[in-house]
């Protein structure tokens, strides 16, 4: 899942605009977090699932964010 999808979901719930920042500007825009924001770091729970028999039962990140319990008030 991309930062874009996460940001768009949060922006939608907070009624805030979301903009795309080119990788060359990430450091200036995000500060110290910019280095992490531009990494191509795909991850998977496959190893955990296979080695520990873990089977998640809760909603994924976007579905959880869409539940609105983070954005009430």
Topology record:
Blueprint: H1 3-14, H2 26-30, H3 34-37, H4 46-52, H5 61-65
User: What percentage of amino acids are in beta strands?
Assistant: under 5%
- Could you say which overall geometry the principal axes of the C-alpha atoms support? flat
Class computed from helices, strands and strand pairing: mainly alpha
Number of helices: 5
Q: Count the strands?
A: 0
Major pleated sheet: none
Mean pLDDT over the residues? 88
Written as H for each helix and E for each strand, in order along the chain, the element string is: HHHHH
Question: How helical, in percent, are the residues?
Answer: 40-55%
What is the CA-based Rg, rounded?
A: 15 Å
- Tell me the count of domains: 1
What ranges have pLDDT less than 50 throughout 5 or more consecutive residues? Answer: none
Distance between the termini: 27 Å
Highlighted features:
5 helices; 73 residues; mainly alpha
Describe this structure in words.
By secondary structure, the protein is mainly α. It has one domain. Helix content is 45%, strand content 0%. It is built from 5 helices and no strands. It has helices spanning 3-14, 26-30, 34-37, 46-52, 61-65. The radius of gyration is 15 Å and the shape is flat. The protein starts with a helix and ends in an 8-residue tail after the last helix.
